Amino acid sequence: MVTEEAAVRAPSGRSLHVTPLVREGDMVAKGDAVACLRHAPDVCFVAPIAGQVARLSLLPGRKLSEIVLFREPDGAVRQHDPGQADATAGLRRLMQGAGLWPWLRRRPFGGMPAHDEKPSAIFVMAADTRPFAPDPRQAIAGREEDFSRGLAALLRLTEGPVIVCQQAGAPLFDRGADDGRIRTITRGARHPQASAGICIHHFFPAGLDAPVWDIHAEDAAALGTLLDTGELPMQRLVHIAGAGLRDARTVWTHPGADLRQLTQRVVAPGPHQLISGSPLDGHLSRWLAPRHRQITVLPRETVHSRPHWLVSALTQSAGAKPAIPTAALSKAFGGALPAAPFIRALSAGDDETAMKLGVLSLLEEDLALADYVLSETGQLTAQLRGMLARIRTEFDA
Amino acid sequence: MIRGLWNRETVALMLLAAYLPLALFWLWLGGTGALAQLALAVLVVGIWHLVFMLMRAQAPSLAALTTALAIAMLAPEDLGAFRLVLGVSFGVVMGELVFGGWGRNVVNPAIVALSFLGFGFPAFSWPVFDAPIAWAAIPAALIGVASGAMPAAVLAGAALVATGAVLTGILPEQVLLAAGIVLVLLVADPVTSAATTLGRWINGALYAGLVTFFAFGWTGAAPVQIAVAAALLTSLAAPLLDEAALALWVAQRRRRHGRT
Question: What does the entry list under GO cellular component (chain B) (predicted)?
Answer without folding.
Answer: plasma membrane
